[in-house]
Amino acid sequence: MGAIQRLLLVAGVYMPLHVAADSLWQDLPDYLQNKAAAPAAAALNAKAVEARRLLGDIDALQAQLRTDKSDLTLAVPLPDGTMASFRLRPASVMHAALAAKYPSIVTLQGHEVGNPQNHGRFDVTGRGFHGMFQYNGETVFIDPEQRGNNRQYLSYYKRHAQPLANLPADEVLEGAPVAAKVLTGTAAREFGDPVSLRTYRLAVSTTGEYTAFHGGPTRALEAVATLVNRLNYVFEREIAVNLELVANNDNIIFTDPDSDPFANNNNSSDLTTNSTVLSENIGNSNFDIGHVLTTDGGGVAFLGAVCNNTLKARGVSGSTLPTGNSFYIDLVAHEVGHQFGAAHTFNGTTSNCGGGNRRADNAYEPGSGSTIMAYAGICGEENIQSVSNDYFHARSIEQMTNHITFGSGANCGTVTPIADNRQPRATAPADVTIPANTAFILEGNGEDTSAARLAPELTYTWEQYDLGPASSDAATMVDDGRRPIFRSRYPSPSPRRYFPQLEDVVRQTTSLGEAYPTTNRTLRFRLTVRNSIGGSAFDDMQITTVTSAGPFRVTTPAAAARWDGSGPAEITWDVADTDRPPVNCDNVDIYLSTDDGESFNFPLVSATPNDGTHTLPAPNADTDRARILVRCSDNIFFAVNSGAFTIDNSTAPFVPLIVGQTAITISEDSNRTVQLSDLAVTDLDNDYPDDFTLTIQAGNNYQVSGQTVIPAANFNGNLTVPVTVNDGAADSDTFELTITVSPVNDPPVAAADTVSITPDSGATLVDVLANDTDVEGDSLTLTAFDYSGAGTVSIVGNQLSYTPAAGFTGSEVIQYTVTDQNGATAIGTATMNVGAANPGSGGGSSGGDRNGGGSGGGGGGAPGWLELLALLGLARLRRRRQQAQTRTPI
Questions:
Q1: Cα torsion at 280, 281, 283, 286 (round to 10°)?
Q2: Of the candidates 195, 587, 594, 653, which lies 20 to 30 Å from 563 by C-alpha distance?
Q3: Higher confidence at residue 162 or residue 292?
């Protein structure tokens, strides 16, 4: 079978096809991995600073795809030398008629088996295998290394990608303006609103030069399919837009540079020509957006042209090497973004960022910027990276969504609901005031009700959302009181972002595109939450920086300091007036890192006074890479000590330290089982909570049963519960756990009443509430009664008024409702014994007013004969009810 074995495993009727890793991919030998003799630049299809080089048996995959491509599990090589298994399904980028003419063009989408967070697009054509996918928060590409060779591949991260050719500036022409709409809050997108996919008919023309570059019309159409597949991966994810090549797109793949209608080296001319070409070959009513691909450098497009019958064909993208990631994303996705209404977002003016290309009303990204609508890599010393990231800035999402919702883009395309796909929600924190020259952390929240089978985890992007003066070089990419000073960073599964990035704070430096705020100013930030299937949400917040406070700094331990277990460890910091208005930071939290600041996972103390010093027992850990982070407890600013220091205390196991708890609130008369997860514990030689035990001590106003705290009956307020944890070797110091017991309104207790009344005596007022109680001492009100006798009953002055029927003797029961001041109720009964006066009846009667000759019962003595008859009748009635209740049902 040759050096690369072919092995196709088919398992069961409904089981997916598995293409084994060793049947499709084989790493190049070590001596070829970094071979100096790389392909000539003109032959390159992909280029990266670092990459995994592989041989791929594309024939094995193509053979199976001809048989079954509906459910494929494919082994995908990762740049780090490992493999990932992706479950794939067809995702056509062509009209069905065009796809039927070119069955060898197969485009797929899917996600890693067991991890939908890692997802992407793939295609298999005569040009080989191509992949673009997310893996653990990074974009990965798999591409043939050179054109015309579908056997040798590169697997590489986006951050290592290099452009094949230098891309010049593009030109943006104004299309039909779209009135700005606010897409935050409730104006355009509500949390939980359905997300629909909008599909636009795309017509892509190619010049004869472009077609020749790729090796003929079929190969050129295959290159276009790869391009559109990657465009769809971006646009579907960002704004729920899909592009589909029109049915006769092969009619506009021109083959002869001498006879085709395009100049190829004049973008303005080709822009106009493409309108004519598409009208004549496709029909103006048969496409929604048009574009032409050339081999001349640069691009030009009309802004907001989609669905505009005059302008919709006017988009051009060209490169001397029109292939690869940089061409697809940095250029074509950029120009298509213009056609959907997105303007430039960079704030620099150096090199290609100059010449009128900057949009002052849209310049949200420092320097060259890094998102698709910026100019990454072509702005000289203001470049913050060499290639664009494959996502749009929040401003671009807003503009494109405006166009397809309120502009001409709403007038065409096919809208298809995505079942169970809903708009997420973004929640930014409250506005704050922080000291100048100080690092800070932003952390928001996201919520999504989309079906789990559809949506991977949410991703989060924090972007500064300020406009200000342009920068003119790297030195001016700093705070002037207005301009943007923080770059956009790739969407992350974490809702937290450090400003500047944590690694720079730890190293006491900054990277181009991030600068400390040094002035009195307001910084506006936008949190964008994406569900990766077209749903997104925004929320904004503001930070006020003041020069009257700061910089907030950790002063000890200094770099190279040493702590050991022989004495206390002291941490000091420069409060720098952060304890005063307008910052008002009263307390700080202190964290320890044992990996030189890569993470600060060990809380040492929480809410200690912001007085500049704290002493604690030295953590019993062995490390020479310790760092300390001090953060304001109720604010976002923080500082890290100046360098790594040593902790040396290996002679005894580290005693666990409880440093905090989650808030615990329960209702009155309920209980709570305390879990280890309720506590924040630092223990450097053990992994909390694995193998830890919890002990709860007795205290006031509660009982303990195992790990369950049972408050005393009717108790409300704060319980202070002493607890300790043990790591298997040592107990922690006692920590006072707080459990808040929220009061509940207990219902009143209604006691039964018995009243003796003389026949025909008139109305009797009975104070039935006199013996009713309420544990909270609430005032009670008589609110209702239930009576079915022949007499008369009413409520008079919060008492029952009872008048027996004329000539009636015997007993009657009145059921009444008592209500406390908070609305809780109880049911009570009052028994009215109507007969001869009973001078000797014993307790249990309510007494009350005895108008009309009623008697409320008194001291001892025997009951009168009328009362005996009444009691006998009541006993017979109860016996009949009991007999009725015990009858066997039929």
A1: -160
A2: 587
A3: 292
Write down the pLDDT at residue 182.
Answer: 41
Residue 68 lies in a domain: yes
Yes or no: say if 857 and 753 are a contact pair by the CB < 8 Å rule: no
Q: Residue 290 and residue 493: Cα distance in Å, rounded?
A: 35
- Element (H or E) spanning 357, and its range? none
Query: Dihedrals φ, ψ of 169, to 5°?
Result: -65, 155
Structural domain count, the chain: 6
Q: Are 368 and 471 in contact (CB under 8 A)?
A: no
Domain-embedded: residue 607: yes
Q: pLDDT tens, 691-742?
A: 899 999 999 999 999 999 999 998 999 999 999 999 888 888 899 999 999 9
Count of Cβ atoms closer than 10 Å to residue 287 Cβ = 24
Q: How far apart, in whole angstroms, are the C-alpha atoms of residue 324 and residue 214? A: 12
Q: What is the pLDDT of residues 880-889, one digit of tens each?
A: 433 333 333 3
Residue with tokens 């991966």: 233
Asked if residue 398 and residue 292 are part of one domain, the reply reads: yes
Q: Are 62 and 104 in contact (CB under 8 A)?
A: yes
DSSP string, 468-497: -PPP-SGGG-S-SSSS--B-----BSSSEE
Residue 374 lies in a domain: no
Q: Residue 500: is the preceding peptide bond cis (ω within 30°)?
A: yes
Q: What is the CATH number of the domain that holds 564?
A: 2.60.40
**Residue range 145-167, pLDDT digits in tens:** 998 898 999 999 999 988 877 77
Report pLDDT for 171.
72
Q: What is the CATH number of the domain that holds 261?
A: 3.40.390.10
Query: Residue 70 — φ and ψ, nearest 5°?
Result: -75, -25
Residues 336 and 234 both lie in one domain: yes
Contact present, 505 and 439 (Cβ < 8 Å): yes
What's the whole-model pTM score? 0.76
Tokens 């008859």 belong to residue: 869
Residues 202 and 331 in one domain: yes
HEC readout, 528-554:
EEECCCCCEEEEEEEEEEECCCCCCEE
- Residue 454: which pLDDT band, with cuts at 50, 70 and 90? low
Q: Are 335 and 317 in contact (CB under 8 A)?
A: yes
Please choose, from the candidates 53, 7, 237, 229, the residue with its C-alpha nearest in 3D space to the C-alpha of residue 124: 229
* Domain range enclosing 714: 657-742
